[in-house]
Structures are given as C-alpha cells and as structure tokens.
Amino acid sequence: MEHGAGLFLDDFDGDELDRAVWLPHYLPAWSSRAETAATYAVRDSALHLRIDPGAPAWCWPDHRPATRVSGIQSGSWSGPVGGTRGQQPYRDGLAVREQQDEFWGWTPGPGRIEVRARMTVSPRSMAACWLVGREVEPHECAELCLFEVFGDAVEPGRSAGVGMGLHAFRDPDVPEDFAASRLRIDVAEPHTFGASWTVDTVELSVDDALVRRCPQPPAYPLQMMLAVFDFPDRSVGDDDHLVPELVVESVRGW
C-alpha cells in the first residue's frame, strides 16, 4: 500500500484488507453491516471477492429481482434510521435501516485511475468496478464506471461485452453516457481497466487502448466500488454450484 503525495496504490500484499481504505460491505445503510458483509480473501497479492452457493439475497425481499452481492467500497455514510439520506438508493423513498458513520478511505477527484482485474462469471452473474459520488450533497451522486461485465456477454477465451461510461442518476450536470463495447479480451485473464479523468472529459481504456470518451463527467470526489453479483432468477438450470469471482490485483490512482 502506498498513499500520499498524490499517489494511491493498493496491490493487496499481505493477507488482510486495509480497513483504513476499504469497507467490506455493500451499501449497508439499506440493510445492515451484518447482512452485507463481503465474502473475500486477500492472498497471492490479490483481492478475491466471491459469492458462495447458498449466500442470501441482498435487501431481500424489498429489492427485486433477487440479487446476491459481495463487494467492498472506499467510502460510506448515511443519515439516521428511517430517513432517506444514503448512498445509491435503489428506489424512491427507500429508508435507512442501519445508520452508517462517515468513512472516507479513498475518495479521488479527477486524475488517472487503473484497476487490474480478472473475473469468473456465468450467464447468471456479473462483476463491476465503478466510482460514485459520496452523496453527502444529494446531487453529487453520478457514476463513472470502469467496467461492468455480465457473464451472458462473455465468449470464454475470446471476447466480452464491457460496459463503461457515465450514469447521471440524480445529477443534472452529468449526461447519461453508458455503453457496452465488444472487446477481444479474455476476462478470465488479468487486464488493466483505466480512466483518464478531467473536469471536462473521461477517457476509458483497457490495457492502455482507448475504448470510450465521455464528456462532462462528475468533477467532485468519488468513492470506488468493487463487487461481484449473482442473479438467481437468471439460472439456466443446474448452475447453483457456480461461484462467481472478481480478482483484483491492484488499484492505483494519481
């Protein structure tokens, strides 16, 4: 881990997650920390996020369709229980179930960000890395997505549809500008997903090759989200034993 003088680097050496930077829960305000704990290991100089068979659905039964998640985030907070102030609500009027203290591990502004990662996904799962506004100010909620890969868009060993771009959500100053590009990459092997981000534009790349350029990205600090998802309703039969996994070798920013 290196952090300071404009440089951030986590290469996941050792065997513990740096809890000064990462919260191993996924949007716990809408559920609880106990019910949103990530399943992960830090080994072989990498973070391994996975979803084991039988893991419960996130925010079930309020959140539909059923979604199982294992994720970490580099920031967190919420308003009080019963209120509606929190991060990335999935519907209007959603109420906080467990208040979260402010936690700001790493919340970068414009610069260069690179995430080196690989993944194992099936037609019922996906993996993603995105940066999103902290929402302390409600309009600061837009998303900058480095990658979103659904297993049903993967041709194993050959290519993958890689979603990248911007989601405006409730920020009137950021345009909706998101698309999945078909790339000739094997997502089961490590690749470097990058964002060169200024106040005017963001250039999104894979292995230093430009994939998308989006104008008017958010210019405020964002927190990073890393997660793997499973969608039981997309089961095609005998696949409940599958374990989706996102393996992150490094996160760096400067």
TrEMBL record:
Q: Tell me which InterPro entries the record gives.
A: ConA-like_dom_sf
Domain of life of the organism in this record? Bacteria
- Put simply, this protein is called Glycoside hydrolase family 16
Q: Which organism is it from?
A: Cellulomonas chitinilytica
Source organism phylogeny: Bacteria, Bacillati, Actinomycetota, Actinomycetes, Micrococcales
